[in-house]
Design goal:
Shape: globular
Number of helices: 2
Radius of gyration: 14 Å
Strand content: 25-35%
Number of strands: 7
Largest sheet: 4 strands, antiparallel
Length: 124
C-alpha cells in the first residue's frame, strides 16, 4: 500500500480486490486481538499459517470508506481492513482486507476491539 494509511489505504486495497477479474477467492482466517497486537491464523494454510502484527505497527482499522460489500452466496458482507507498518520498512504499509462473514463477529465489533486495545492506547 506504499505509504498510504488510514481510510485511503483501505479504499485503495478494497478497490484493487473488488476490481480483480475473476474475483479473489476469500480465505477464512481467525482474527485475534490482544494488547500485544493482531494474530491472523489460516487454519487450512491456504495462504499462510499464522501472522502476527505488533501493536505498535498497527495504525488504522476501519470500514471501506465507500461502504461497498463483498457478496458471498448472494449475501452482502461489510468490508473492513487494518493497516500496519510493513515489516522491515519504516515508510511502507500493508493493508489486510476482510469481509464480515459471521454476524456474531461483526465488522463493527472487530473494529471497536482493535481501536480500544491497540489504537487508543497509542494516542494516550
Amino acid at each position: 500500500m506504499e505509504s498510504l494509511t488510514g481510510p485511503q489505504a483501505v479504499l485503495k486495497a478494497a478497490s484493487c480486490i473488488l476490481e480483480q477479474q475473476p474475483l479473489t477467492q476469500p480465505v477464512r482466517v481467525q482474527f485475534q486481538v490482544s494488547e500485544q497486537g493482531i494474530i491472523l491464523t489460516d487454519s487450512k494454510r491456504k495462504l499462510f499459517f499464522r501472522r502476527h502484527y505488533q501493536a505498535g505497527s498497527i495504525n488504522h482499522c476501519g470500514l471501506d470508506p465507500l461502504q461497498r460489500r463483498w457478496r458471498k452466496d448472494n449475501e452482502p458482507s461489510r468490508i473492513f481492513a487494518f493497516v500496519a507498518k510493513k515489516q522491515g520498512s519504516s515508510s511502507e504499509n500493508v493493508c489486510h482486507v476482510f469481509a464480515e462473514l459471521e454476524r456474531e463477529n461483526s465488522a463493527h465489533q472487530i473494529i471497536g476491539l482493535v481501536t480500544s486495545k491497540l489504537l487508543e492506547p497509542q494516542r494516550g
